[in-house]
Amino acid sequence: MKFNHVATRLDLRHFELVVEMFKVKLGFVELRQTGRAVWLRQPETNVDLQFSRSDTVHRDADKLRSQVSFLSETPKDALEDLAAWLRAGGTEASVGSYSEKEFFLDAPAAFVDFVIEAMVPELADYPVKI
Length: 130
Description:
CATH architecture: Roll
Organism: Teichococcus aestuarii
Strand order of the largest sheet: 1-4-3-2
CATH superfamily: 2,3-Dihydroxybiphenyl 1,2-Dioxygenase, domain 1
CATH class: Alpha Beta
Protein name: VOC domain-containing protein
Largest sheet: 4 strands, mixed
Strand content: 25-35%
Structural class: alpha/beta
Distance between the termini: 17 Å
Number of domains: 1
CATH topology: 2,3-Dihydroxybiphenyl 1,2-Dioxygenase, domain 1
């Protein structure tokens, strides 16, 4: 088996706004869309991200441990920009931190079981060669 994509859930009321944010603000390209899900890929990467529409009223209480993660030289600023974009679209969003090098964006009404993480690139400089 070969790794293909990661899937997570978005509240169906905020689905289009979040997908649009990934496309407009982060440069993702839509690969395919069905009535229940969309598959996206950021150019120059090799892992796809699938968002599924969800009408669940329960939000994962431990979702801070499930992330769609990005690298950035300025992770907090990058997430603050996304939070402002979501708020301008009518969705509550806030930025928090795991450490001085790792930050997260939550949009509680939209993100069912994950947050968006951004961290400095040095944290992904692994000593393993593949």
